[in-house]
Amino acid sequence: MYYLDFLRSLHVALEPRSYMEIGIRHGDSLALARCPAAGIDPEFNLHAELGPEVTLFRETSDEYFERSDPLAPLAGRPVDLAFIDGMHLAEFALRDFANVERNARWTSVAVFDDILPRTSEEAARDRRTVTWTGDVFKLLGILDRHRPDLLCLRVGTEPTGLLLVLGMDPGSRALDRRYDEIVAEVVVPDPQVLPVDVSERHRVLDPTAVLASSAWQLLREARDRQEPRAAGLRALRRTVRRDLGRVGPGPLRRLLATA
Ligand SMILES: C[S@@+](CC[C@H](N)C(=O)[O-])C[C@H]1O[C@@H](n2cnc3c(N)ncnc32)[C@H](O)[C@@H]1O
C-alpha cells in the first residue's frame, strides 16, 4: 500500500480533531487533513489543494516549537495526529517527536515517514540519492530502548515504511534528558549500516491489518471520554496484541531497555 493511501485511511479511522505536519513539500500529505491543521516547512512549494482550516508556517520545526503557543493554530487543542516528515536525520526526527509528544495526549498518534530504507545509500546522512530516507530508521531502536512504555507499530507501506507511535506521555522528559547521550551514540558518519530487521522488513505489519484494527475506535472513544493513560494504555495493548500480535521490542531490545 502506498503511504499516502495508508495515511488517508488513518485520518478516516482516527478522526483527528487537530493535525500537525512537519515537512510538507508539495502538500500531498497535508491535503489529507480535514480538521484544524498546522503545516511546518522552511521551503514548501505547494501543488496540492489544502483544506480550509490549514495554517502554514515557513520555518523549521525547531523554530516552530520555540513559539509561546504552538497549539494556537489548532484552536488550542492537543495534537491528535502528527506526521513527522521534515529533516531526515535521526537527531532532528528525535527532537520533532519529543516536541510533538509534549503537545499531544496519550490517545494521539505520531507517524514517522521513511523508517524502512532499502539501501545504505538511501539511508546516508549526506544525501546523494533522489529518494532519500536519511537515518530516521534509527528511531525504531531509540524508542524501543529509551521509551519502552510507547507502543510502536512498524507498517510496511511503500516505498519506505511508516512508524506509528501510540500511547504517548506528554509529561515524559526521558528523551530530553537523554538527548545528548542518544545523539552521541547514534549519529555516526556514512556509510550507515542497516540492521537486518530494517533491510529485510522483519516485524513489519501489513498496512491493511493495521487499518482494520479496533485500536482506532478505542483511541477515539478514550479521547472523547478523556480516559486516563494508565488504564487506557493497558486496554490499547491488549487490543493491539489481539489484532496484530506482539509488536513490542524483541528480547534483546527489552533487556537493553531495562539496563
Ligand atoms: C519528504 S518532504 C515532505 C513530504 C510530505 N510530507 C508528503 O508526504 O507529501 C520533506 C520536507 O521537509 C522539509 N524540511 C527540511 N528540514 C526541515 C525542518 N528542519 N523542519 C521542517 N521541515 C523541514 C523540506 O523542506 C521538505 O519539503
SSE blueprint:
Elements lengths: L2 H12 L4 E4 L14 E4 L13 E4 L3 H5 L13 E6 L5 H13 L1 E10 L24 H9 L4 E5 L6 E5 L7 H4 L1 H8 L9 H4 L7 H6 L2 H11 L3 H16 L6 H8 L1
Parallel strand pairs: 1-2, 1-4, 2-3, 4-5
Antiparallel strand pairs: 5-7, 6-7
The structure holds S-adenosylmethionine.
What does this structure look like?
Strand 4, helix 3 and strand 5 (104-113) form a beta-alpha-beta unit. Mean pLDDT is 95; it is low at 254-259. The chain is built from eleven helices and seven strands. With 259 residues, it is α/β, with parallel strands linked by helices. Strands 3-2-1-4-5-7-6 form a seven-stranded mixed sheet, with helices on both faces. It is globular. S-adenosylmethionine (SAM) binds at residues 22-26, 28-29, 40-44, 60-61, 85-87, 92. S-adenosylmethionine (SAM) binds next to loops.
Q: What is the string of SSEs from the N terminus onward?
A: HEEEHEHEHEEHHHHHHH
Which structural category fits the helices and strands? alpha/beta
Shape: globular
What is the mean predicted local confidence, pLDDT?
95
Which strand order spans the largest sheet, edge to edge or round the barrel? 3-2-1-4-5-7-6
Largest sheet at a glance?
7 strands, mixed
The proportion of residues forming helix, as a percent range, comes to 25-40%
Strand content: 5-15%
Q: Which ligands does the model contain, each kind named once?
A: S-adenosylmethionine
Q: What's the total count of β strands?
A: 7
Distance between the termini: 37 Å
In the predicted model, the low-confidence regions spanning at least 5 consecutive residues are 254-259
Counting H and I runs of at least 4 residues, what is the number of helices?
11
Radius of gyration: 17 Å
